[in-house]
Amino acid sequence: MSEMAVDGSKRRFLVAMSAAVGGVAAVGAATPLVMSMMPSARALAAGAPVEVDISKIEPGMMLTVEWRGKPVWIVNRTPEMLAMLGKDNDRLTDPNSDLDQQPEYCKNPHRSIKPEFFVGVGVCTHLGCAPSYRPEVGPADLGQDWHGGFFCPCHGSRYDLASRVFKGSPAPKNMLVPPYKYLSDSKILVGEDHKA
User: Where do the structural domains in the chain lie, given as residue ranges?
Assistant: First the structure.
């Protein structure tokens, strides 16, 4: 037997510790690489898609998220709200959404992929103000013929619940509908086309 006996337990301990230190070093080296692949706040503001959980939006309620530095509204329209959409067509500037203010897959009376969920950029097409969500029917300040929609307090532009502009409003056209798609029944991705 040689003069130096090998202590197996010390060797296993040193091998395990070396492996652990090496693993920590590998994770430390990989973290900057992985983080560099994630979009920065600047990239998100510039237009990276935004994932939104729509499962918690109660019927009749609206959620606002930010995409490309602009507010994007997601409204869970009730059956009553959807029934009101056809009632004002003769009072709208572009009831059939003929102008390119929405993706082709949203060129329909409700201007959305699924009728109940409206997704729109919340910026008035007159001078860029932020309209208010006014879902109530016939309020005193908007008149008995108001069936719900969006009202711009800056200069009085009126939009229906599909953000189509009313004739006589200072706004010249309907509000924009951004590209978006459903990831599941409860999640949408704003900023990426439905067909992509």
Answer: 1-38, 44-190
What CATH architecture applies to the domain 44-190? Answer: 3-layer Sandwich (2.102)
121-151 burial code (b ≥16 CB/10 A, e <16): bbbbbbeebebebbbeeeeeebeeebbbbbb
Question: pTM of the full predicted structure?
Answer: 0.73
How far is Cα 94 from Cα 175, in angstroms, rounded to an integer?
Answer: 11
Which residues participate in catalysis according to the annotation? 155
Structure tokens at 44: 């998100």
Distance of alpha carbon 168 from alpha carbon 156, whole angstroms: 10
pLDDT at residue 99, rounded to an integer: 80
Instruction: Judge residue 117's burial from the number of C-beta atoms within 10 Å of its C-beta, 0-12 exposed, 13-18 middle, 19 or more buried.
Output: middle
User: Strand 180-184 vs strand 62-67: parallel, antiparallel, or unpaired?
Assistant: unpaired
Q: 52: closest CA among 180, 195, 168?
A: 180
- For residue 121, what are the β-bridge partners? 72
pLDDT tens string 56-107: 999 999 999 999 899 999 999 999 999 989 888 999 998 888 888 888 888 9
CA distances from 121 to 12, 37, 69, 107 (A): 62, 28, 10, 15
- CA proximity to 20, closest of 10, 8, 32, 12: 12
Rounded Cα distance between 173 and 19, Å, is 64
